[in-house]
Amino acid sequence: MTSRGPPLALASINIERSKHLDRVAAFLRAQSPDVVCLQELVDEDIAVFREGLGYPHVHYLSMGRYPEHGRLRLTGIGILARAAFESTEDIGYGGGGSGTDVVDRTSEETRYQSTRYPLAVVSVRHGADLFTIATTHFPWTDAARTSDFQRQACDALLRLTRGRSLVVCGDFNAPRGKEIFSRLAEAWRDHVPPIYDSSIDPVLHRVPNLRLMVDGLFSTPDYELSAVTLHRGVSDHRAITALVARRT
Prior knowledge:
Layout: E1 8-14, H1 21-31, E2 35-42, H2 46-50, E3 57-68, E4 71-81, E5 85-94, H3 108-113, E6 117-126, E7 129-137, H4 148-161, E8 167-171, H5 179-187, E9 189-190, E10 215-219, E11 223-231, E12 239-246
Parallel strand pairs: 1-2, 7-8
Antiparallel strand pairs: 1-12, 2-4, 3-4, 5-6, 6-7, 8-10, 9-10, 11-12
Helix pairs in contact: 4-5
């Protein structure tokens, strides 16, 4: 049975650092979600969301210093909320970096070894219910192939969250239908409707019309998700929105 409390409005977006901030801000003003999960969030831009969009509570985890336009910008993942968090967690599950190292983009292996891959977790009360929301940016590989370091990261992620009640969203850099995404969908319920065959924006991504469903929205069985929608025109990845309710 689903809780009688009001559902929590959730959004998840890979915002591609600072490239689409105006689009992202306009989208969040229009949607007004209760909780926002962001990937590729630059620490310098947190004020845009905290002060400009009314999300005063931020749980931010850095993954590395991303070299871009002659600068090294601390980049990571963040969960933003209008209500205060009851708890926050940082669950590191992959990579060889400290979270502040310079990301070495020479190869996919050097990128992995110089980056820290965490799962950000928060608990937030909405109405009478307590929701546990998590987000991550999973290790990347070229051409969406499955690598051994992705397998190791997936092993660790699932081991460290085993038995936990969670809603998990983010950019998983592993297409639906392939090994990593399938393993996640075995552990958690995949809530992105099958009508969507890509979470890549067909215009804003550097590779137009790329057909890959790499962004995910999962949960354990004690959550019910509805109105799951993917939105184009927000960033290089499509934004995901959903209503989240607790099951009792």
